[in-house]
């Protein structure tokens, strides 16, 4: 029996239909596993459908963590090949606005270079030719290969590709329990909101990709998962003021990135820790504070018609007390451990930019544990168009 034939007998359930779960459905299905995905709401209705939309070149993280920066740079190159439809490769400008920022520039450039990120200093006059609305009093400007992700299309491309290979995603189906026997996963209990009834689904492996809710899902399996949900607010105005991502050149903090998304400009974000990802309310004070920060990068931002303010919750890997900025933006794959049932995996942390790499790491781990030599191919397989996902469902 070949390893692919053996994989076909392994039933995998993925919990969570955000970017991570969607990429995982594609990867494992492509390796031959029999996969289903359950999402309690609409697909991408968690953090994935609400994030800032920056395709991170890695420059933002280079000083703090060169490995994460390198991973972002590699993923940008891969996503450009496999998911060009979901990406606007518009590049980014980092602007120094103060003495402190100027002093930071040398460290920033060295770290970007160490991570393999193509960073180039440009004269402020040149930067103003690219982006006429940036602050003309900027002291320094650096060009990096940032971009913009379409938050919905990218996961739908993964889902469409998985569906084409026979995998199904079930929206509005909440996993309410992990079923076990003799310490091994045997399936999940699912509440189907469309039919208003509970059902059970068999599984040999359950993968918890529930983002900021991953801690709760793990609890149902008796696993204490180290994850810190960290909320952040963003504000959009109804005008595209820049075509590039515009960032403040300083150590990553609050309100220091403006991302163009379709006809909008979005400033983000703030950040605070929360115990309840469902109970987060956008603080009124965040909105004005972010508009002021945006004016520093793009003067006049706050004069544009207000479009929306919203808050999303980051699933940060690890535990922290103190805002979450100190926690890594990397991701962790938590394999079956001593306290949880065999066959139960979790993946936490990461970014929308690195969701494909997260999925690959989980799938590699599953294959290792089952002694299956099936290499991942998602890095080299162009994804299907996002529209195919719905076309297949209708057919
Ligand atoms: C303010 C903010 C800005 C960000 N900006 C960027 C950015 O510009 N670029 C970038 O790369 N990253 C960004 N991120 C990070 C990025 O959004 C997240 O890392 C990513 O979206 C997480 O995806 P996920 O699939 O892991 O989680 P989610 O998208 O949250 O998916 C988890 C899903 O699980 C579902 N679920 C939960 N419990 C259950 C259950 N019991 N049964 C079934 N389903 C369940 C949820 O409904 C949810 O849809 C940002 C994050 C925040 C908070």
Compact summary:
With 395 residues, the protein is α+β, with helices and mostly antiparallel strands. Helices cover 29% and strands 28% of the residues. The two termini are 34 Å apart.
Task: Give the topology, please.
Layout: H1 3-8, E1 11-15, H2 19-30, E2 34-38, E3 54-55, H3 66-82, E4 87-88, E5 92-96, H4 99-114, E6 120-122, H5 124-130, E7 140-144, E8 147-149, H6 153-164, E9 168-170, E10 173-181, E11 184-192, E12 197-202, E13 205-208, H7 214-220, E14 227-237, E15 245-248, E16 257-261, E17 264-268, E18 272-273, H8 284-297, E19 306-317, E20 331-334, E21 344-349, H9 355-369, H10 387-394
Parallel strand pairs: 1-2, 1-13, 2-9, 5-15, 13-21
Antiparallel strand pairs: 3-8, 4-8, 5-7, 6-7, 10-11, 11-12, 14-17, 14-18, 14-19, 15-16, 16-17, 20-21
Helix pairs in contact: 2-6, 2-9, 6-10
The chain binds flavin-adenine dinucleotide (FAD).
Flavin-adenine dinucleotide (FAD) binds at residues 15-21, 38-41, 45-48, 51-54, 56, 174-175, 209-213, 217, 232, 234, 268-269, 312-315, 350-353.
Structure description:
With 395 residues, the protein is α+β, with helices and mostly antiparallel strands. It is 29% helix and 28% strand. The chain has two domains: 1-51 and 151-225 and 322-395, FAD/NAD(P)-binding domain; 91-149 and 227-317, D-Amino Acid Oxidase, subunit A, domain 2 (D-Amino Acid Oxidase, Chain A, domain 2). The strands form four sheets. Strands 5, 6, 7, 14, 15, 16, 17, 18 and 19 form a nine-stranded mixed beta sheet that branches. Strands 9-2-1-13-21-20 form a six-stranded mixed beta sheet. Helix 2 links the parallel strand 1 (11-15) and strand 2. Helix 2 packs across helix 9. The longest helix has 17 residues, at 66-82. The chain is globular. The two termini are 34 Å apart. The structure holds flavin-adenine dinucleotide (FAD). The site of flavin-adenine dinucleotide has 40 residues, from helix 2, strand 10, strand 14 and strand 19.
């Amino acid at each position: 029996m070949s390893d692919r034939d053996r994989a076909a007998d392994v039933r995998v359930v993925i919990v969570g239909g955000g970017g991570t779960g969607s990429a995982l459905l594609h990867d494992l299905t492509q390796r031959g596993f029999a996969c289903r995905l359950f999402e309690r709401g609409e697909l991408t209705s968690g953090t994935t459908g609400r994030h800032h939309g920056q395709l991170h070149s890695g420059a933002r993280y280079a000083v703090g963590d060169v490995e994460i920066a390198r991973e972002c740079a590699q993923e940008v190159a891969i996503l450009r090949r496999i998911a060009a439809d979901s990406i606007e490769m518009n590049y980014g400008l980092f602007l120094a606005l103060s003495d402190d920022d100027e002093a930071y520039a040398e460290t920033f450039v060295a770290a970007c270079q160490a991570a393999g990120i193509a960073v180039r200093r440009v004269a402020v006059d040149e930067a103003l030719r690219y982006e006429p609305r940036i602050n003309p009093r900027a002291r320094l400007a650096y060009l990096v290969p940032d971009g913009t992700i379409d938050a919905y299309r990218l996961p739908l491309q993964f889902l469409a590709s998985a569906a084409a290979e026979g995998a199904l995603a079930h929206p509005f189906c909440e996993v309410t329990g992990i079923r076990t026997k003799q310490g091994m996963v045997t399936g999940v209990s699912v509440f189907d909101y469309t039919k208003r009834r509970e059902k059970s689904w068999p599984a040999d492996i359950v993968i918890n990709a529930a983002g900021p809710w991953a801690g709760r899902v793990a609890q149902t399996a008796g696993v204490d998962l180290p994850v810190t949900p960290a909320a952040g607010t963003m504000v959009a105005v109804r005008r595209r003021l820049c075509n590039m991502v515009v960032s403040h050149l300083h150590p990553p903090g609050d309100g220091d990135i403006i991302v163009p998304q379709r006809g909008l400009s979005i400033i983000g974000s703030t950040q605070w820790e929360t115990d309840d990802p469902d109970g987060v309310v956008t603080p009124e004070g965040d909105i004005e504070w972010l508009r002021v920060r945006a004016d520093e990068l793009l003067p006049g931002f706050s004069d544009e018609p207000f479009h929306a303010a919203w808050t999303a919750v980051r699933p940060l890997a690890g535990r922290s007390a103190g805002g979450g900025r100190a926690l890594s933006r990397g991701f962790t794959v938590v394999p079956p451990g001593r306290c949880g049932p065999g066959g139960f995996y979790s993946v936490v942390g990461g970014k929308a930019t690195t969701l494909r790499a997260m999925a690959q790491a989980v799938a590699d781990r599953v294959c290792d544990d089952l002694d299956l030599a099936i290499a991942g191919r998602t890095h080299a397989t162009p994804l299907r168009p996002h529209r195919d996902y719905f076309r297949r469902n209708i057919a």
